[in-house]
Amino acid sequence: MDGQALRVACARYGIMENALVVLSHTDHNLVGAYVQDGCERILKLAASSHRSVELIQAEVDWMD
Questions:
Q1: What is the pTM of this model?
Q2: What residues are paired with 52 via a beta bridge?
Q3: Which residue has the higher pLDDT, 58 or 49?
Q4: Which pLDDT score is estimated for 1?
Q5: pLDDT at res. 3
Q6: SS3 state of residue 20
Q7: Are the C-beta atoms of 51 and 60 separated by less than 8 Å?
Q8: How far apart are CA 23 and CA 20, in angstroms?
Q9: I need a surface site. Which of 6, 32, 33, 54 has the fewest CB within 10 A?
Q10: Residue 2 pLDDT > 80, yes or no?
Q11: Which uninterrupted H or E stretch holds 13?
């Protein structure tokens, strides 16, 4: 996962890059935690070549 993808995601979701605590970072995904509007949140970026939309949705459903 490259820095450009992280910058785009942070800009899209209004996340300050320096506020993101990286929990996991591999070639295929990045998981980070941050606080926004007083709520703890998780950002996960995954390469489309590694995880399908369905698999990511299953993870979101499990967390919800």
A1: 0.78
A2: none
A3: 58
A4: 67
A5: 84
A6: coil
A7: no
A8: 9
A9: 54
A10: no
A11: helix 3-13
Question: What would the pLDDT profile of 9-50 be if each residue is shown by its tens digit?
Answer: 999 999 999 999 999 999 888 999 999 999 999 999 988 888
41 closest CA partner among 50, 49, 51, 31: 31
Domain locations along the chain: 3-63
| Tokens (6 digits) for 17 | 């890059």
Report the amino acid identity of residue 6. Answer: L
Hey, what are 18's tokens?
């320096």
Q: List the structure tokens of 55.
A: 């698999």
Contact 42, 32 (CB under 8 A): yes
Geometric angle at alpha carbon 43, from 45 and 11, rounded to 5°: 85
